[in-house]
Amino acid sequence: MNATQNDVPPQTPPGDTRYMTLALALGRRGLGNAWPNPAVGCVIVKDGVIVGRGWTQAGGRPHAEVVALNQAKRRAKGATLYCTLEPCSHEGKSPPCADAVIKAGIARVVSALEDPNPEVAGQGHARLRDKGIAVDVGLMADEAQRAHAGHITRIQKSRPHVTLKLAISADGKAGLAGRKPVAISGEEARDRVWLMRAQSDAILVGIGTVLSDNPQLTCRLPGMFERSPVRVVLDAKLSVPMSVTVISTVRDTPTWVFCSHKASPIAEDILQQKGAKVFRVDETQGRLDLDEVLKVLGEQGITRLMVEGGPTIAASFVAADLVDEAVLLRGPKEIGGDGIAALEGMKLEALTGKLKLLGAEQVGADTIETYMST
Q: Which of 65, 86, 114, 308 is flagged as catalytic?
């Protein structure tokens, strides 16, 4: 994942890093809610005082810059605007943000990243400079790249950024013998998983997980149920029962089901009548083609996908080299040698060896490790 980075001034003016840090924090409020657009954050400062702030709103509009400019009003004239991604320059479902910045009389723009979208790709910065606005690009670019990983991956690879979440025991197991489920993580770690769901556009599991666990796949943190992601189920044969939670609650939280071209059209019609969306994709070696699944999700606007299935689904994504980020929740107890490995038929190193460890954090009795592709 490489977005274009430019000309950070040799000496960052006082306060710039602090305001960009705030803009990044504001942008994160839109994660999982702003798709198909990037979750941008924006801060406007005049004479050392914050006069406007904003983040991309639900469904991607209005954009962060517009929200902040509307808050700043006349105080925006002569101010500095900090944004986590280049202001857009193309006419989409809303007018270009670059034009709004120019009209407001902003004197200087500090932008973390050039937008890799070919419809922008430096043109927003160029338009601002052409109107005499000072533009500095690249401040806190690494942090912004991670914040906009979903947008960047969708633009550059035509698929969502994939985060694989695994709950594993101290001895690297994901379940009991006989594929019986077992509680591995504590309440604090569970709450962190729910927050991860809220910051994802969609969450993916296989039909095996649906049948064995009947999960809700929602965010159940207080006041955040509406931030639950789209639920995606891989079900080649369309064997999902209508009684499972992801189908019976589809009117409350969307569910998309991926199946093969051979699946029953009658089952598809029933699912659609229930309110679920059904997508047909090719099969490879008897399994749904994950590359095609991700391509379809990208076409639907999904930028950040959380994979929370069992060992088989996890191993499939690892084997296909489709994991951009991994979050491992390591519980303190061992399951034993007859337990189910975290990755079906693969050692855990097949995942962790491909990624870079960003950090480890103690959350209650569990350790949460975060890995990222380099």
A: 65
